[in-house]
Amino acid sequence: ETxxxxxxxxxxxxxxxxxxxxxxxxxxxxxxxxxxxxxxxDTAVWLVATRPESAAGHFWHDRAPRPTTFGWQRExxxxxxxxxxxxxxxxxxxxxxxxxxxx
Length: 103
Prior knowledge:
Layout: E1 8-9, H1 17-22, H2 24-30, H3 37-50, E2 59-61, E3 64-66, H4 78-92
Parallel strand pairs: 1-2
Antiparallel strand pairs: 2-3
């Protein structure tokens, strides 16, 4: 056990210069709904501060695990997950099977 935890999170749509520059029409239409930067960072900060126990591979949004598939696609693709882990392991030079996936 390394004590290292990895979390995946999304801040939601946040009022940032990047949104203003890249998506000006979207920003004009959705500006009242966009989060401020503190709200966008909330889940990431919360994850670091609380280090919640969870199964590997969870995606977090608004301090809760969320599905990573939508609509008709509800099952995990074990082969795709194993290929992803293998690619990341090769890039990082690690050999540890850190998510428990195998082919």
